[in-house]
Specification:
- The chain is built from 33 helices and 24 strands.
- By secondary structure, the protein is of the alpha/beta class.
- The longest helix is centred in the N-terminal third of the chain and has 27 residues.
Length: 804
């Protein structure tokens, strides 16, 4: 075997690194990561750097040095070499599984590693190595197709020997009595054998036995298993591997980049102050905002409704934590983009990032508007466009909450950005909207990192969730900061029930004749489409705008902008509309957080009380005193709030819907304080921190869910593929990523009237593609599954090859 390579040769680029060179680059990155972030890690984890230097650093550096040792095998090297026409080389085992095998099997180097580190530390090291690509499951099946009859692992290869000798020297610097690693010969293993007299077991038996041994030894540790230490080790190794792989390719020194990024991605007090002062426009902060900023506890809960200036208060609190980056998290891409636009966008003096799966679409819209105003884009180094590092070097990050809490599910973005997450001051906004799994993941994050400063914000919070926060945070959490009493005491809403939509139309038509802005919120897309069609046939003084999720993302962004423009104000005091005249928006639940509008009249289908409070937050937002505006509640039953006698959560939803109907039936006016009191009366079951694939997975390392299972699937439409090819430059090479495909994505129900969703077997960048003719596409109503009677069930025309 020639010198084993770590990466594929690419025409026109420098020669790829050997396995030893790549391992050295990752080790160099790991050392730089440790030096730059160990103090942050100690503070976040509630321990001392001395403990981490003893318990974690040696294993981290060792794992970084040996993580790709398993690439020295004939299957992996054949993947990187020249191929005959039609040949598709395959591996019997992934390279990280081979690395694990080499380092745990006593016949290779396992006995040496256990003798040097002790069993537990050796086990932590090899499990981190096995999991650094997040593909470790309990399925030990060996791929036998296209691999040849044997797997050859040249344990005597000079690179293997040099890396192990280096590892021994490294461990001696940490005080371990590391003997010289044993010299082994090449190991050749049959892939499969049924011969009971074979000299050695086949790969599937030998590797599976080795893996099961590690799993059993982990299980034997029981409650003493160092789960958090293993999770931290996995996160650090994944971050170092991403850095050590990407930075040299971008012609950056890993050590220099890491030092600069992790040191520079922090806000000064003056920079934080400049953000909130700009948002106030010369006005003094409110007492409520001062209280949020000055609270001494490391965890603060804000319970305040619309109009209190919570986000400005959050930026004021950032001034309390100089030397940290501000990380603002939101539950949806829409709210994240809005938070970025309102506070961070265009501030060239702050290294900033908007991070979510569709951010390129949202950013392009922001920059089109900014260009018209003569603003320049902030300079961005090409290397820093590598998304994995935006959490490292940015002073302010605005993102979906999955970017942070995805740690619990072994998601790549937070694992690769882990060193940057450790220096954060965190703002978790709209936490009332988290589903049960996501809220449990928040609790687990707060439990795991007791030293991180956090600000939790919402208009209201059910008592069960407040109790769960108190149980996890203990004395880190003081009493909640309530909104401004005068603001929350203003009577904003005149709430009443109506018998049917016919009654509602009379109210809507009268409001539009007065040139008012009307928001009608439905519980399903089908209802929103129907109501909008009804409106279009009524001869109203304005055309209805429909806003829901079943549009291609680029079209949805355009619709959101049109809605915001229709309701916009021309003055900071919010007294004069930018676009005079009537407006009618028919929307679904997506408006509850992503639309920062103030309607003059609200019509809503009945919904759980927390959702109703959010919808009321889109009505009369800027009332200067007691000036209630009408809100009407319509009867509703069924999906998505259908009761199921065997489902505790559905029973809670029914109770919450009954509470909404009850308060509407009082036919009186309401303020935010009174609505919050109604929410406090809702009962709820005990809430505990959620299980975590990252913390609880032990030997297993694979991505998992951090949100409750949804009822939609994000797809590409078959008929859009030619337009995508034209826009992205031909059939998909590896450049077709999810981020680039985001403008064409659309969420559709996972179930179809004819059964399961009509999807092709083909995927593009991991995204499913619909069958031809499976989708009805209406430019006004959005996309929906075609009538099953007219949908021909046939195999799809082959789509471009799968990318990822």
């Amino acid at each position: 075997m020639t010198k084993p390579l770590a990466k594929s040769p690419t025409k026109g680029r420098p020669a790829p690194p050997t396995v030893a060179e790549h391992c050295a680059e990752v080790w160099e990155t790991a050392r730089a990561v440790w030096e730059a972030s160990a103090d942050d890690l100690a503070l976040a984890a509630g321990t001392s750097r001395g403990v981490l230097e003893f318990e974690l650093r040696p294993l981290f550096e060792l794992a970084a040095l040996l993580h790709d040792l398993g690439k020295v095998n004939d299957h992996f090297q054949r993947l990187l070499g020249p191929r005959r026409f039609g040949e598709i080389p395959r591996q019997a085992l992934r390279h990280e599984a081979v690395s694990f095998w080499m380092l745990w099997d006593g016949a290779m180097f396992g006995d040496w590693l256990r003798d040097t580190l002790g069993e537990t530390d050796a086990l932590l090291t090899v499990l981190a190595v096995a999991g650094h690509h997040r593909k470790v499951t309990n399925d030990h099946g060996v791929n036998e197709q296209g691999t040849g009859p044997t797997l050859k692992i040249p344990l005597h290869d000079p690179q293997v020997r040099s890396l192990l000798d280096w590892a021994a020297r490294l461990l001696r610097t940490f005080g371990f009595a590391a003997a010289a690693p044993p010299r082994r010969g090449a190991r050749t293993v049959d892939l499969v054998t049924d011969d009971p007299f074979a000299d050695a077991p086949a790969v599937d038996d030998s590797f599976a036995a080795c893996w099961q041994n590690a799993v059993d030894r982990w299980a034997a540790l029981g409650k003493h298993a160092p789960k958090r230490r293993l999770a931290l080790l996995k996160a650090l190794l994944i971050a170092a591997d991403v850095g050590g792989s990407a930075l040299p390719a971008a012609k950056r020194s890993p050590a220099a980049y890491v030092r600069d990024a992790l040191a520079g991605g922090r806000l000064s007090a003056a920079e934080a102050r400049a953000v909130w002062e700009a948002s106030l426009g010369g006005r003094p902060p409110r007492p409520f905002q001062r209280e949020v900023a000055d609270r001494p506890e490391s965890a603060v809960l804000v319970l305040a409704g619309t109009g209190n200036g919570k986000t400005t208060a959050a930026w004021m609190r950032a001034e309390r934590y100089p030397g940290r980056k501000a990380i603002f998290t939101y539950p949806t891409t829409g709210t994240a983009s809005a938070g970025y636009e309102d506070y961070v966008f265009g501030r060239g003096e702050i290294a900033q990032a908007l991070i979510h799966g569709r951010r390129d679409v949202d950013l392009e819209g922001l920059w089109e508007t900014a260009a018209a105003e003569g603003k320049d884009r902030p300079e961005e180094d090409a290397d820093q466009k590598l998304e994995a590092f935006e959490l490292w070097g940015r002073q302010a990050v605005v993102c979906t909450v999955d970017t942070v809490l995805g740690l619990a599910g072994n998601h790549l973005r937070p694992l690769a950005g882990f060193p940057g997450l450790l220096s954060g001051y965190y703002v978790f906004d709209e936490i009332h909207s988290y589903d049960g799994q996501l809220f449990g993941s928040l609790l687990r994050f707060l439990e795991t990192f007791p030293g991180l400063p956090v600000l939790l914000m919402t208009a209201s919070l059910p008592p069960a969730r407040l109790a769960a926060l108190r149980a996890v945070l203990g004395d880190r959490l003081g009493e909640p900061v309530r909104g401004d009493a005068a603001l929350e005491g203003r009577r904003r809403y005149d709430l009443a029930p109506l018998d049917d939509e016919a009654s509602a139309w009379g109210e809507v038509e009268a409001a539009l004749e007065r040139d008012e802005k009307v928001l009608w919120v439905c519980n399903t897309v089908a209802d929103a489409v129907r109501v909008a069609a009804d409106a279009a046939g009524r001869g109203l003084p304005c055309e209805p705008l429909i806003y829901h999720s079943r549009f291609r993302y680029r079209d949805r962004v355009d619709r959101q902008r049109a809605v915001l423009d229709a309701f916009a104000y021309a003055d900071p005091e919010k007294t004069r509309r930018a676009t005079p005249g009537p407006a009618l928006v028919v929307a679904t639940q997506v408006c509850e957080m992503s639309l920062d509008v103030s309607a003059d009249l609200l019509v809503s289908s009945n919904c759980p009380l927390p959702a109703l409070v959010q919808r009321l937050g889109r009505l009369n937002r800027y009332a200067a005193g007691d000036d209630p505006r009408p809100a009407f509640l319509l009867p509703f039953e069924g999906y998505p709030y259908k009761s199921n006698a065997d489902d505790a959560r559905d029973k809670e939803l029914q109770a919450e819907m009954a509470a909404s109907w009850e308060i509407a039936g009082q036919r009186t006016t309401w303020n935010q304080h009174e609505l919050a009191a109604e929410l406090d009366r809702l009962a709820g079951g005990e809430i505990r921190p959620a299980p975590s694939d990252w913390l609880d997975g032990g030997p297993l390392t694979q991505p998992g869910a951090i949100r409750d299972a949804g009822s939609t699937v994000t797809v590409l439409v078959h008929e859009d593929v030619p337009a995508i090819e034209a826009a992205l430059g031909g059939p998909p090479p590896r450049g077709w990523t999810r981020q680039k495909l985001a403008p064409w994505t659309v969420p559709l129900p996972t179930r179809h009237a004819g059964g399961s969703a009509p999807l092709s077997a083909d995927r593009i960048a991991g995204l499913p593609v619909t069958l031809p003719g499976a989708v009805d596409d209406d430019p006004d109503a959005g996309l929906s599954w075609a009538d099953p009677q007219s949908l021909a069930r046939k195999e799809a025309t082959p789509c471009p090859a799968d990318v990822l």
